[in-house]
Amino acid sequence: MFFLRDNLKAYKLLQKQLSCIGCQVELDFEEEEAVVRGDIEKGPGGAFGAAEQWELQVDRVLINFTESYLCYHVVEPKKAKILLQELSFVTDDIKVYREAGYPVVVGETEAVHEKIAILEKSQPTRKELPIVEKLFKLVEEEFNREMRTQYPEVKINIGSAMVTLEGPDKEVQSGANTLEDLRKKVKEKRVKLSTALMTFIGSSGAVSKYQTRFQQRLRNPVSLEVGSELVMSSLSSDALDEAEATLQRDFDVADVELQGALAAPPDLDGLKEILFKAKNEANSREFRVDVSFIPGTGGTPNTKVQLVGYRENVNKLKEVLHDYQINQIGTQEVLNLPNPDMLDCFDKILGMIGMKQNKVTLKASLFPYPCVLVSGPCHLVKEAKQGLISALASLTLDTLILDGPGSLQYFQAEGKVGKELVESSLSSRNSKTSLDIKLGSLIDAQANVLVVPMINNNLTSTKIGNSLFQKAGNAIKSKFDSVAAIICNVAPGDVLQVDAPQSLGCSKLFFIECLPWDGVRGQSVKALGNGLKRCLDLCVQQGFSTVAFPVIGPGVVLKYPMKEAIQVLMENICQLGLSASSGSLTTIQIVITPGYPDSKECYQDVYRHPGLHVNQGGEAIFRSLTSDLDDITMTVGGGVKLQLVFGDITDETTDAVVNTTNFVDFQMGVCKDILTVAGADVEAELKAATSTHGDVFVSKSGEFPCEALFHVCGQNDAVVIEQMVIRIVEHCESLGFKSVAIPAICAGAGGLDPGVVAGAVLRGVKDATSSSGLNSLTDIRLVLFKINVFLAFKEKAMQMFSTAVINKVSVPQQQQQQQQPPSVEADLSIICNSSTRQQSVFRFLGLSRKDVDGAMTKLTDLYQAQCSSQSFRKEELKDLTQDDVKDLKQLVETEGLYVELSQGTLKVSGLKNGVIKVMQIINASLRGNLRREVRDREEEDLYAHVAWCILGHRGNWERLPKTANHSLENNDVGGRIVDAQGDKWTADLPRMEATRYLGGQTAKLKRLEHLRDFTLPLYWDNMAAGEALKTVELLPSYAEYRAVKEAFKRTVGKTVLKIERLQNVHLRRAYEAQKKQISDKYKQQGGECEKILYHGTTQDNCDSIVKTGFNRRFSGQNATAYGEGTYFAVNANYSAQPTYSKPADDGSQLMFVVRVLTGLYTQGQENMRVPPPVSDQEGHDRYDSVVDSVDNPQMYVVFHDNQAYPDYLITFK
Fold first, then answer.
1. pLDDT tens digit string along 944-956?
2. 874 burial class (0-12, 13-18, 19+ CB within 10 angstroms)?
């Protein structure tokens, strides 16, 4: 209102707009209101029509007017003061008024906004922001860039721990928010470094140096802070990663252990002087490296040198240290032995040549190859080495090959002929190569040669190459680079030969140039195969004795499928085994890294590779196959044999097998695997058992091939596990078991540490077998499924038992299911061997040719005097059992005999004692087999006419096997009888009962004597000779009675008065003949389709059916809706209707339970006299029966009387 009063322009504009609608305005300042007046009838266009329309017109004018003007209230004190004092803000079009103590600017909207903008700029805002200086440096560049771009009018002043922003208030506030947002975006990364390296970085000025470098070179600055960890901060994650990589690359710490003389004065003092001098030179301009000497702990004399600082300087000091070790304190040189066999008897050779060790040490060593290590002062070492070379060259070396079995064994035992000859016989060699599967890292393998993959002629292109570099450092890199520089163009499959640094413990490194996987038929497989073959050839050519291969290919670089990588490796190794000679290469190691998900699969694929089972001329291509997972055998208390076995417990066949369970969840770990094999009955028995934590629950074995299953819960407690093992041994003794298999209790699903479990189980075995004498138990097998668990048990066993021996097999054997051999001759072939395998090679060393020739002649004569041979005809061998053949095979191996089989005749040659033992086994077999044949004939004859049965747990009579049948018939049951399921029982013939040996359950026995021309069903009672019909009333206590009654009562609510079994020989014989005919007819479809059905009858018809069977000629008495045959119901309630089972005078009814051969059936039709043909083409081939409904038969009709047999007669009411 004041503005309209003071601004005539605005006032006239309002009046003009109101006059257009016939109105005028008056300002009433007393009432503080504007009053608009007008004549409704005289408005433009006539009357408005209504007062509401007039008011609407006025409102529209006033709204349009007020929207063109703005009232802006200034409440900020500083701005209000300026506005009131500065007269230039008031113009003809802009007025300033007071309202409630605050100025209000009034005018046209655009003009007011311009004045307010001038006002805000006229008084700058100043804002101080506290900030950590180090943190601000990380964001300073980004902050300045954003402020210049977004808020150029804001002035930035940087002080100590403070940033001041000065300028327009709004922009200053936005700048403060920008700084806070950047501060929140700062990321932090913590890097764990060794304490020594952290100390060096903190004290050497490296922090400020690298912060400056990062600010210059990286997109975003990085700050460093040294504490318990190295803390890095930056706006960029990439900058943090690059900074970390730089620090890891530029800094290093190396601990070098000093041994021998170098670890103590005066050599230690000399080393300190040289290292400190080199350190001072490196630190002349800046602190670059530090050296410290750390004495040994726990009384050990070894001292450790710690080098820490810039990697470049650390490596230089390592070279200084290495040079000092080589040149200042003595040296060691390697002398290749002319023959590897000299290794084992080197001390005797020194005595023979009269060479003494004074200041120089001579030591024979297998590594890095068969050699002599000559150690001592440099000048003396060279002199001693030359003298040894001359002395060895003067010796006479010769070889004697004894072509016959057992020669080496004889001369290692009773055939020793005197000191001078034994000392001359150095060793026996087998030219074949052994395979050894090692679990560990290739860089730790002890072999002459290590084989390493690479890509693009790059040392660190693969994980193995990286590991070698980490272990050997610049020593290996310089050697590799020098070779790679000479051979620039390396093709896939080529091999780079690099001398190995001493720190690796090998002589050579063979690097194979590889290609990433490109398919089975691609170039990668071909290149890898060529490289592997080249490595093996080089080993033979250069006289190396051992080589170690990894499984090259699986991994993130080459990406071979595991099986393909193994196939390429094994093909080339096996090809070497098949070649004429492997030269000096005695051992090939295949190194598998444990701890990976596929480590076990890799081991098994290598161990079971088909190529290992190839033989050449009847002889295995490799001398032996050993691995770190070979069985461990040891003798514990009482002479019990304890074995550690890497395998699956479900493959065990011991008398008892132990299952681990928590008695709650039966679908996990070992428990699930064992119950899967044992079957549902055992699982049900286990589920029904009450909780037996701390004890052993014994169950039947079901389908598991053992006598009993022991179920235990280790409760994840080592003490409980130890006590549990003791109880397992006690149960084996009480039950008379000879062997037991035990898993690693709680080491699988239980999650207990394998080392803890191993200690508990082995202590339990040791205590159980040593506390008291054992009469039954002879073998305990600890069956371990996982690699890490087996290795933990192996380590503990080797510590606890001095008798532990690793069982190394001479020839790898594939696991096969036990089966009977097709013939005796095929059986005997497994004990035959090759004459070339029986050659023993003896090396002779002497001072003269005469001495060597004399020793060789004497050895030959002694052996030939001890030899013998014997032939056995086919007739003498035909009765050998599988066990006999196993015994012969073991005897041939232990006695070193030569065996050949030709046209059924077995010829055995070798030392006399061994040949005599073979004769004793074959003669004993002849006598034993004669007795077995007589017994087998007796059992077979008896089985044909006498059947001994045992009542099964489900109420069915089960026939006992022939052996038990014979024992019961002859009252020869002093021991046990074994039923068809393999369960053992003790028999009480007077009571006709048997007691299960395991569990104590009792069962009835029954003896059936078959008729001359008829075999009685097992559930029948005996029948006298000539007796054709017998009716047996069943007692309610019989399981047979209960089974028949329960089936009847499912659909009939009446009371059963009596159940009789009907034994009609003539009817049953005819029924069985018909059953065989239908069974043969539908053999492919599953047999005769026999069903148990019901047939209601009357007293008049009952006797006739019992004596002569069902007669279809009487059909139609009740109904013939589905044909003129004999009707049988599926459910008893149908046959129980009075229509079919007519009640007698006393209200009782009769019903037959009938065995019916329903065969192939179809829909029945009224007036059918025979079943219809199956097809129109073959009219003679008819259905066997018809039904009321093919989809859901409730009634069967047969037209052949012999297709039904009345099995039981039920009397009910």
1. 889 999 988 777 8
2. middle
